[in-house]
Specification:
single chain, 13 helices, binds (2R,3S,4R,5S)-2-(hydroxymethyl)piperidine-3,4,5-triol, 737 residues, 3 domains, TIM Barrel, Immunoglobulin-like, Beta-galactosidase, Chain A, domain 5, eight-stranded parallel β-barrel, globular
Length: 737
């Protein structure tokens, strides 16, 4: 059993293979947090529960004589609000009598086999891992609000998930104003925060800062998880490294506006509260109704590498679904950076022919294939092929592409509508716009109201119509603007605060129906590159276009930052043209491939402009990719160096799950004249194994991990190397056994 209730001490204990999480129902019915961290082997951690007399921190009425008991200073599992815990709270609501307080006390708990479910929302699923669930019911009898805290324990994965369900147990209406998913308390220690900020074309840049007293807020109010602040944060020991130090990760399984507040309080305790962004949130809960929050994935590990490995594993095995979860992903060619909007069927076919010759498997037709779409000012919403560009329609194009031996993929941006479209002319009220106000425009498009049933039905009919009619094996699902003017013309004014979240309930429902009806289609998420790169989207699309920036040098940092929370198989990465279209930088073809092979691999350039020798080089790249894909996608990733701007090189290593193979990759970003050779200690190999390094050297895993490996001198513009490391003693060993 990974969940236990110890009646004598009032403890609820969650245990994974390497971690333990203790909470305590104290004598007054408050659910206190005791400990989360590496397993201690000790059951009774009640001694961690201490109260102190704290000035200016009040006491619950019944404990008014005990000045040591204050909600303002005690670590809690999910906070009350308005009753004297003045730190960031987990929840806020207005009750029907206008009061805005609630104090939650333990009522009951249940322990069950399997994973709790969250209606309508993506979440970690039990993939035969025998998850267990603890639900703790907390109640405030004056406000008549019940909070059901769900915890699922994935013992072998070292993962705990959390979500909350808020129930209006009274006869009046309750308006929820904040409903976070989880509250994590770190009562002791000195912590750094690593968060992943960015912008369009430069997503998920890691930034590490020591927590200072006050509240750190990481949030998106853009109606999307956003390019700017990813819903993933790490809290780690001040001196934590890739290999040592306690590291906690919190990841929200959600794609809309989110907020994480991390408070270092007056007593040097840390409280981290993660969940929906409450800025525009107001949810009406009628009597007996419930609200389900999105889920938070928690892990605690020794060192950043182990933490990443745990998140990679849970995302790969328990978030990503369907037949593309494991195994080969098609090597694709996308026409966007080759043609942008300017293409004809003929031009596409020439590229496709070359794509087939060099060994790619899937041709993806990006934006611009539908009526009135010659630039980004019109056409979204009317998903019928442009007969000027594609005289035989999609049928004829697909037939020709298939006859070359390639599969066909299509770009869509279903959540959007152009003002200049038949859809908008017919249903202007289907767009999110505030009454009497000209909406903010972005890329000249508006966002459809995904909280409306008619919109979901229209989109389901349209997309399933395309997938039924045409032989399409891949969909790139784009989303190219933030959501502003968020107002639904189908909801009354009092319920407008529900629209941001109802939008995602609608989107997830649509996606769920499509992935269920078309299990053989590979969906790739996209939002102006990686603007919606989150675990919520990965529940539907096994890979997400990591960034619109395809410059391999920029990508080093983007993919490095992304890798802290998300596995390589989820990161769409393409070889594009040089000079690069976003940065103007020139890089060798080999370096572009080295970096793209660290993710879900493809090409995005005009292949017809390549020389014969470049085509040969690409054939070789694809052959290599096929060989290393299993170890990159299913193995362990080690970040052997940082990728920040001051580094002269970036090195990473992918090791296969059985440690029989590894791929060592380096890109030199700043070669030094007569400089010191680059030397690195490898990781993750079997110390006793004998490995051949690039066919050049043969030595033990221990030697490679202790004395390390020295690269040959790499000079020129952004040179790179990929070195295959293979175990050579396996066969011998097998023979001996
Ligand atoms: C933004 C995407 O990230 C690009 O790859 C491309 O699909 C364009 N949109 C098309 O409009």
């Amino acid at each position: 059993m990974s969940i236990r209730y110890v009646k004598e001490s009032g403890q609820l204990i969650l245990e994974t293979a390497g971690t333990a999480y203790h909470m305590k129902i104290d004598g007054h019915g408050y659910l206190q947090h005791l400990y989360y961290g590496a397993g201690t082997g000790h059951e009774d951690l009640s001694y961690m529960y201490r109260t102190y007399d704290r000035g200016f921190s009040g006491n619950p009425y019944e404990l008014r004589d005990d000045r040591t008991y204050s909600l303002d200073s005690m670590p809690q599992e999910y906070t009350s609000f308005g009753v004297g815990d003045f730190r960031v709270n987990s929840i806020a609501a207005s009750c029907s009598d206008g009061s805005r307080c609630a104090e939650f006390r333990y009522m009951s708990h249940e322990i069950s086999e399997g994973k709790y479910s969250i209606p309508g929302l993506p979440s970690v699923y039990d993939n035969g891992d025998t998850a267990e669930t603890l639900t703790v019911n907390l109640m405030d009898n004056a406000a008549n609000i019940m909070v059901r805290l769900h915890y699922a324990v994935f013992e072998e994965l070292d993962i705990i998930t959390r979500a909350a369900e808020i129930v209006n147990a009274g006869p009046g209406t309750v308006w929820l104003r904040k409903a976070s998913s989880a509250c994590l308390e770190l009562p002791f220690g000195r912590w750094d925060m690593i968060h992943f900020h960015g912008r369009h074309c430069m997503e998920r840049q890691p930034e590490r800062v020591p927590l200072f007293h006050g509240i750190h807020t990481l949030s998106s109010g853009r109606g999307m998880s956003g390019h700017q602040h990813n819903p993933f944060v790490i809290l780690c020991d001040r001196d934590a490294t890739e290999d040592s130090g306690t590291c906690y990760g919190m990841m929200l399984v959600y794609s809309g506006s989110h907020r994480t507040e991390i408070e270092l309080d007056q007593f040097d305790c840390v409280r981290a509260v993660m969940g929906l962004n409450d800025d525009r949130f107001r949810w009406e809960l009628g009597p007996g109704e419930s609200f389900h929050t999105p889920e938070v994935i928690l892990s605690c590990a020794e060192g950043l590498t182990q933490l990443s490995h745990r998140f990679h594993r849970v995302i790969r095995n328990n978030i990503v679904r369907g037949r593309f979860r494991y195994g080969h992903r098609p090597v694709l060619v996308n026409n966007w950076e080759a043609t942008y909007f300017d293409f004809t069927e003929e031009k596409l076919l020439v590229i496709a022919r070359r794509a087939a010759e060099i060994g790619t498997e899937l041709f993806v037709l990006d934006d611009g294939w539908f009526r009135n779409r010659n630039d980004d000012n019109a056409g979204l919403g009317d998903w019928a092929p442009d007969e000027n560009k594609l005289p035989g329609g999609l049928e004829s194009l697909i037939e020709k592409i298939k006859s070359m031996g390639l599969d066909f993929g299509l770009w869509i941006e279903p959540e959007m509508v152009s003002e200049d479209s038949d859809l908008y002319r017919a249903h202007p009220d289907w767009a999110l716009t505030a009454p009497g106000r000209a909406p903010m425009m972005a890329r000249n498009q508006l966002v459809l109201d995904m909280s409306r049933r008619e919109v979901i039905e229209y989109l389901y009919e349209t997309i399933s119509g395309l997938l039924e009619r045409y032989d399409i094996s891949y969909i790139k699902w784009d989303f190219n603007r933030p959501i502003s003017d968020i107002y639904s013309h189908s909801l009354p004014s009092a319920r407008q605060g529900e629209v941001p979240h109802r939008y995602y309930l609608g989107l997830y429902e649509l996606y769920e129906r499509l992935v269920t009806a078309f299990p053989d289609v590979l969906f790739e998420g996209c939002a102006g590159g990686g603007g919606r790169f989150d675990a919520g989207m990965l529940f539907y699309s096994p890979q997400i276009w990591c960034s619109d920036n395809t410059d391999p040098v920029s990508r080093l940092m983007i993919q490095y930052g992304t890798s802290f929370g998300y596995p390589p198989s989820c990161m769409g990465a393409h070889v594009s043209a040089s000079p690069n279209h976003q940065t103007g930088r020139s890089t060798p073809l080999s370096t572009r491939a080295t970096v793209a092979m660290a993710g879900s691999f493809g090409y995005e350039l005009d292949l017809t402009k390549l020389t014969g020798s470049e085509c040969e080089e690409i054939k070789e790249q694809i052959r290599l990719h096929r060989k290393i894909e299993p170890l990159v996608h299913e193995g362990l990733l080690y970040r052997l160096s940082s990728a920040d701007e001051s580094s002269r090189f970036v090195i990473w290593e992918n090791v296969s799950p059985d440690r029989s193979e590894a791929l060592l990759s380096i890109v030199v970003t700043d070669p030094k004249a007569n400089g010191a050779p680059v030397h690195i200690k490898l990781k993750g190999l079997d110390p006793a194994g004998v490995y051949s390094v690039g066919g050049e050297i043969e030595c033990t895993g221990m030697a490679l991990m202790q004395s390390g490996y020295t690269f040959e001198r790499l000079t020129g513009d952004y040179p790179s190397r990929q070195i295959l490391i293979r175990r050579t003693d396996m066969k011998e060993k097998d023979d001996k056994q």
